[in-house]
Amino acid sequence: MEIHLPSLPMMKILSYLDAYSLLQVAQVNKNWNELASSDVLWRKLCQKRWLYCDIDTLQLQGKETWKQFFVDRIWQEHAKFRAKPNDFTHKEIALKCGLFGYAYYISGCGLTRKGQDKSVVCMVSSKNTISTWDVHKSVITWKSPVQPASIKLLTTLPEMHIAVTVDIQSTIKLWDCHNREALATNNLKSPCTSLKAVITKDDPIVLAGDTLGNLYIFRIPDLHLISTVNVLPYGFDGIYCSPQKKWVLLSKKHPYILPKVFYMNSFLRTSEFSAPVSTVLKLSLCERAFWTPRREDRITLMSRSGFPQFTKFETYDMKLEEFGDKRIVKGHLVASFELQYHKENSKWFGVSDKDVIVCSTESSLLLFDINGLHLKTFQYCPEMIVRLSVDPLHVIVVCNNGSLDVYAWEERSLLLRKCYRLHIDRPLPLYGFIYKAICDDVSIIQLITDELSLSSLIAYALNICS
C-alpha cells in the first residue's frame, strides 16, 4: 500500500536531504520520483556546492534540469579520483624565455561524459608578454603584444576567460585572451602589492592593493574605479575572499599589523555605506588564511612566531550585526591551537568543508580538527614536501623531486584518501625551484625553473574517462 503525503509538506521534508538521499527517495514510487527530481531541490543543492548557479549555468553546460547538472558535475569531479597514473598524459612545455612564477587557469572545468574540453593556462613571460596554453595540445592559443613595462602581477577570472595584469609602472590592464590589445586600462597611485579578480553578487571586480595600504576596487570589464580605501598602514600581500565573496580578509605578515575582515558590499555600494565596514582579527604575524569551503562566514588563519618558531591556528566566524542604521562586523573566535610539539614548522595549509585542517611540514602531512585534535599523519621521508595545494575536492602534495601525490577529501568522513602518485619523467635540475602546483578537473600543472632561469610547465592531462 502506497502512502501519499501532500506535496508541500513532502517537499519541505525532502529539502533537508542530501543528493544521495534524494536519489534513493526517487526509487520509491512514481510520485516520490517526481517530487525528488524537482528543480527547486536540485538547484538548492547546486548552489550550496558550487555557489554561483543560475539559469545561465544550465545553458552554458547544455543541461535541461538541475538534477542532470548536479549528477554530471559530480561525475566530472570524481573522474580524477577514480583515475590511475596511466590515465594521465604527461607533457612538458619548455618556456625558453623564462617565467616570473605566474601560472593560472583561465578555463573552466573540462570533463564531460561526451568528451573532453580544453584546459587552458595563462602565464607571464620575462619578455613582457602574457600567453595562454592549451594543456592537452601543448600549444599557445593566444599571446599579447610585448608590453612597454615589465608585468609584475597576474590574476585570472576563469568564469569569464579574463586575465588582469599590473606592471611596474602601476598600470592595470584587462585582457579577454582573444584580442591582441587590452580591453581596458587604468592606473594605481602607488606600486601594486596584491591583485585578485572575483565575481560578486553585484558585479565581477578586481581588487588591487598598493604599497601605501590602499585597496582599489575596479569594475570588470571596463576597469571603472568603484572605490579607493586606505585599509592598512602599509601595503598588504594577502587578499582572501570568502566563497560567495561576502567577506574579504586583507593581511600582511607583520608583528604590528593585524589582519582585517571587510564586508564586501561596503566597498561596492558606496551610496549605501558612508565608510567600509570591518573588524580586526587579533592574530599577529598572519602568514596564510583559508576560508572554509561551502561555509560563507568561517575563516582559519595561520601564524608563525617565536624562536624557535611555533605555528598557531585560529578559526573565526564572521557576523554582520545591525543596530538601527549602523552595521558592524564581528569576528568570533571559535577555535585555536598551537603546534608546539612538532619538530618542524608548518609551511602550507588548507581547510575542508568539515573543518579539518591539513598542513604540511617538510617531512609530513598532518590532519587536525579546528580544536587541534590530531586525526592522521602521512609521512614523507626521504622526500621533502615543498608545496601544498588545497581546494574543496583535492589536496596535492608536491615533493622536492617533482612528484605529485593526489589526495581526495572523503565525502562521509573527516579524513583524506590518497589516490595516486604522478612522477616527472626527468630529474629536476640540481638548483631547480618549483613555483606552484594547481589543478582543475582535467589536469594538474606545476611550474618549474632551473639554475639558468629557464622554465618548464609540467602538465598531467587526464584522458577521457568512461
TrEMBL record:
Keywords: Ubl conjugation pathway. It comes from the Eukaryota. Gene3D superfamilies: 1.20.1280.50, YVTN repeat-like/Quinoprotein amine dehydrogenase (2.130.10.10). One of its GO terms (cellular component) is cytoplasm. Pathway: Protein modification; protein ubiquitination. InterPro entries: F-box-like_dom_sf, F-box_dom, F-box_SCF_Substrate_Recog, WD40/YVTN_repeat-like_dom_sf. Residues 1-45 form the F-box domain. CDD domains: F-box_FBXW12. This is F-box/WD repeat-containing protein 15 isoform X1. It comes from Mus caroli (Ryukyu mouse).
